[in-house]
Design goal:
Length: about 110
C-alpha cells in the first residue's frame, strides 16, 4: 500500500499545477466574456494593435482612452460644437433619410 503510493501516476488537476505558460501572456486565463469582447485597436509602441478587451460602448481599452470619464463631453459641452449639424443624432437622422430615399428610388425603378 505504502510502496504503491509512491509509484502512482500523478493525476491531472489533483495537485498544485503550475501553468507552464508565461504569466505575462495569459491569454487563455481570462473569462469567456472578456475573450469574446471586441479588441482595442490602439497602436502600441511595437506597432501592433493593443488588442486588450475594449471597454463596453467604446472602441478602446481602459488604458487607451476607454476608461470612465475620459474623453470630451457630448453636445454643446464639447469644445468643437458649432451648430448641432454634426451631432450623432443629426448624422443618424441624415443616414436614415438617405437610406429611405435610396429605398424609394430602387422601389420606383423596379416597378
Ligand atoms: Zn488598448
Amino acid at each position: 500500500m505504502r510502496a504503491n503510493h509512491g509509484d502512482a501516476q500523478p493525476v491531472n488537476g489533483g495537485g498544485h499545477m503550475k501553468s507552464e505558460a508565461n504569466p505575462m501572456h495569459q491569454t487563455t486565463q481570462e473569462p469567456l466574456r472578456l475573450r469574446l469582447a471586441p479588441r482595442c485597436g490602439a497602436r502600441t509602441r511595437s506597432g501592433r494593435p493593443c488588442s486588450s478587451p475594449a471597454v463596453k460602448g467604446k472602441p478602446r481599452c481602459r488604458m487607451h482612452g476607454g476608461s470612465r470619464g475620459s474623453g470630451a463631453p457630448k453636445g454643446t459641452r464639447n469644445g468643437s460644437y458649432k451648430h448641432g449639424a454634426f451631432t450623432c443624432e443629426a448624422i443618424a437622422e441624415r443616414r436614415e433619410l438617405r437610406d429611405l430615399v435610396r429605398d424609394v428610388r430602387t422601389l420606383l425603378r423596379d416597378t
